[in-house]
Design a protein that fits this description.
With 257 residues, the chain is an alpha/beta fold. It contains eight helices and seven strands. Strands 3-2-1-4-5-6-7 form a seven-stranded parallel sheet, with helices on both faces. Strand 4, helix 4 and strand 5 form a beta-alpha-beta unit. 42% of the residues are buried. The chain binds NADP nicotinamide-adenine-dinucleotide phosphate (NAP).
Length: 257
């Protein structure tokens, strides 16, 4: 039998806007209570909180810069001390930057790992330490299935998070399930040209982008699945099966020029 989501209180990182916002709405509509985490998008997070509380009461919002060690390490203990019984964590917050490997400098490597691997990993650990039981869902990227050197440290960090998903699934079972959703093309980065997205969509076997609603549905499915752990659910129209051929990769890194 599927797990009853109405007993779920889910912390969603980076939930104020875009995909995280849709995940928050889907969980609220399914009867879960949501803790909307935000960093810069305070106004959007408060607006979302209003939307969620119109669906069902009992949601809340919390601020933390996940690259700030103090704010990061107090996030989950603070929620638990406030009496919130968090039993689901969705690591959605991320920063996507493309960077050819020869142009990676140590500061950038650190920054991209900090938000895309270190922060979600430490939140996973804190969830396992401070929360009694439940499930973790890491939002990855279909790139974890193949090689895209121009995705730079972002791609490498997401691969590390995939590995951490599998390791934690084994170590923390049966108390905590750990799964991942790997989106393909969903929303272009703010300011990106629509032509770029249209060109990339041509590579997608299903010939269309995936919607934020589908990403949210996949998260709901994993949150409800009683015995699924260590799973990576690709929501990408099959893109991970074909990847992007090297000559078509933007900013492909062919070495020193
Ligand atoms: N968009 C796509 O097509 C796509 C494709 C593949 C994978 N994904 C994955 O899906 C997830 C959501 O994608 P998205 O495009 O909706 O994400 P996004 O807009 O790039 O980022 C989501 C949120 O991350 C939060 N964040 C960034 N730096 C932070 C920091 N230092 N501290 C705390 N929060 C921070 C931001 O919150 P604030 O705004 O509050 O600062 C931001 O709104 C990501 O994990 C992404 O890698 C997305």
């Amino acid at each position: 039998m599927a797990q009853d989501i109405t007993n779920t209180r889910v912390l969603i990182t980076g939930a104020g806007v875009r995909i995280g916002r849709q995940i928050a709405i889907a969980f609220a509509q399914a009867g879960a209570r949501v803790v909307v985490h935000y960093n810069r998008s305070e106004e959007a997070a408060q607006e979302l909180l209003g939307v969620l509380n119109d669906i069902t009461p009992g949601h809340s919002a919390v601020h933390a810069d996940l690259t700030n060690p103090e704010e990061r390490q107090t996030l989950i203990p603070r929620l638990v001390a406030d009496g919130l019984r968090i039993n689901c964590l969705i690591n959605n917050a991320s920063v996507y930057r493309r960077c050819p490997l020869t142009q990676v400098i140590s500061e950038r490597l650190r920054q991209d790992y900090e938000i895309n691997f270190v922060a979600p990993f430490l939140l996973m650990r804190d969830f396992a330490v401070y929360c009694e039981e439940g499930s973790i869902i890491n939002i990855l990227d279909q790139r974890v299935a193949n090689v895209d050197p121009s995705a730079g440290p972002y791609g490498l960090a997401k691969k590390s998070l995939r590995d951490a998903t599998e390791a934690a699934a084994v170590q923390w079972a049966p108390r905590v399930r750990v799964n991942a959703v790997a989106p393909g093309l969903v929303l272009p980065p703010p300011g990106a040209s629509p032509n770029g997205m249209a060109r990339l969509v041509k590579r997608v076997p299903m010939a269309e982008p995936s919607s934020p609603e589908e990403i949210a549905d996949a998260c709901l499915f994993l949150a409800r699945a009683r015995t699924i752990t260590g799973q990576i659910l690709y929501v990408d129209g099959g893109l991970h099966l074909v990847g992007v051929p090297l000559p078509e990769r933007e900013e492909a890194d062919y070495g020193p020029r």
